[in-house]
Amino acid sequence: MIAQDASASVCGNQSATKRDGYTPTAYAREHIRITPTKLADGREFFYIDDNPLYVSGQKTRELKDPRQLAYRFSDQIAPDGTQVPYPAPEMRQDPLTGDWIPMATARMNRPITAGPGATAKGNPLAARKPGDPYQDGEVPDTDYDVVVFENRFPSMVQVPGASNELHYVDGCKLWPVKPAAGRCEVICFDPNEKGLPADLSVERLRTVVEAWAFRTAEISKIDGIEQVFPFENHGAEIGVTLAHPHGQIYAYPFVPPRMRAELEHTQAYWERTRGNLLRDIMNAEIEAAERIVMRNSSWVAYVPAAARWPLEVHVAPVRDVLTLDELNDQERWDLAQMYSTLLKRGNKFFDKGDGKGMDLPYIAAWHQAPVHDERREHYRLNLQFFSFRRAANKIKYLAGSESGMAAWISDTTPELIAARFHELGPVDIA
C-alpha cells in the first residue's frame, strides 16, 4: 500500500519506461506502506512500514517535524556579517583523469555522535524520545520500521534557482567547474540504535530491498541525475560517524570513475563478442566453482578471481537485471536472504580466538546501470561487498601503490577467501 499526502508524489504510472517511477511489486502492495512527508527545513522524508498495523492504515505515522529549523536553502550569514545566498556545493573536473570531484564544505559541520571529537549528544537517526534533552533527531515519530530522508549535510544537492552552467576556476579552461547538483539520502534500516544489520530479520531486510528499489526508481526521474548508488558503510574503521544501522544513497550528476571504467570494459566486450561481460564473469565463476560462496534460486555470490580486498564478495542476479527496481518479488526475497547470510558469515570470517567472530567493518556497494548513458544496456546489476580488515587485529591501509597509482596489491588470494567462507556454511542456502 502507498500512503500519500500533498507533500510528495511517490508512485508513478504503470508504464515500464525508465523514468516512470516506482511501481510496487505484488508483495509490496499488500505488505509495505510508504508514507511521504517533509521535515521542518523542507527535506523529503519517507516512512517505509512493514508493520501490519501501519500497512492496513489502523495506525498512522507522525508527519509533522516539531523542530524549528530554517528552510534548508535559506540565505546564510557570512563571516563579515553580510547575508549571502546558500552556498551550493560545486564540483571540479580533474584535467588528468576526467574525474569530477564534489566539494562540500558544509559537511565539515555535520554532527559526530561517537568517539573522539563527538559533536552531538544524541543520535539523529533514532526515533523521537519525548522528554529527552536531545531533540534534533531526524525522525518525527517515536518509532519506525525503515525510513529514508534527504541528508541534512549533503555532499551534492540541487539548489532551486541555481545556475547549472559550466564555468572555470580562475577563468582557466583547464579546470571546469559545475554545481554538484546531485542528491544524498540516508536510509535507516531499523529503529534499534544498538542493533547490527547482520542481526536484522530477513523480513526487515526485504523491506530495505524495497526501499532501495523505490528510491532507485524515483531518483532516476530527477533531471540531471546520471547514477544512483545505494551503499552501506559499516564500522568505525570505515569512517562511520553514526553507529545506528543505516545506509546511504548517492545520486551523482555524472557517471563516477569506477562505473565509467566498468562501462568502458563492458561496452568493449559487447562490441567484440556480443556478450555481456558481467554475465559471462558470473557464469565462468559458476563453472570454475571454487570461488562460489553462496547461491539460491535468484542470486550467486562469489569471490572474484581478481579480488582486491582481503575479504571481498560479489553478488549477482541469475537473471539479467539492470537496476534494483527491475527485480521481481522472488528476486527481492532471495536477495534479502542472501544479504542476511552474507553479513552473518562476514562477522564470523575473522576469528579472534574465542570463536565469536567480530563486528566486521565493511562497505556494501550497489553497482547498477547508469540512468542515461547509452552503454547501460550492456551492464548488469551487482553488489560488491568488501572489508578493509585483513586479520582479526589488522587493517589493510591504502599506501603508496594503491593510493598513489591505484595499483592494487592483494594480501591474500581469492581462493583462500573463498575457502574461509566455505568453512562458515554451505554454498546452497535455499
Automatic annotation (TrEMBL):
| Keywords assigned by UniProt, alphabetized | Carbohydrate metabolism, Galactose metabolism, Metal-binding, Nucleotidyltransferase, Transferase, Zinc
Catalytic residues (UniProt): 246 (tele-ump-histidine intermediate)
Q: Name one GO biological process term.
A: galactose catabolic process via UDP-galactose, Leloir pathway
CDD domains, from UniProt? GalT
Domain Galactose-1-phosphate uridyl transferase C-terminal positions: 263-384
EC id: 2.7.7.12
Q: What is one GO cellular-component annotation here? A: cytoplasm
Q: Where is the Galactose-1-phosphate uridyl transferase N-terminal domain?
A: 89-256
Biased-composition ranges, Polar residues, are 1-16
A Pfam family: GalP_UDP_tr_C
Q: Which InterPro entries match?
A: GalP_UDPtransf1, GalP_Utransf_C, GalP_Utransf_N, HIT-like_sf
Q: Which Gene3D superfamilies match?
A: HIT-like
Molecular functions (GO terms): UDP-glucose:hexose-1-phosphate uridylyltransferase activity; zinc ion binding
Q: Which cofactor does it need?
A: Zn(2+)
Q: Region annotation Disordered: residue ranges?
A: 1-22, 115-138
Q: Which NCBIfam families match?
A: galT_1
Family, similarity comment: Belongs to the galactose-1-phosphate uridylyltransferase type 1 family.
Name of this protein: Galactose-1-phosphate uridylyltransferase
- What organism is recorded for this protein? Bifidobacterium dolichotidis
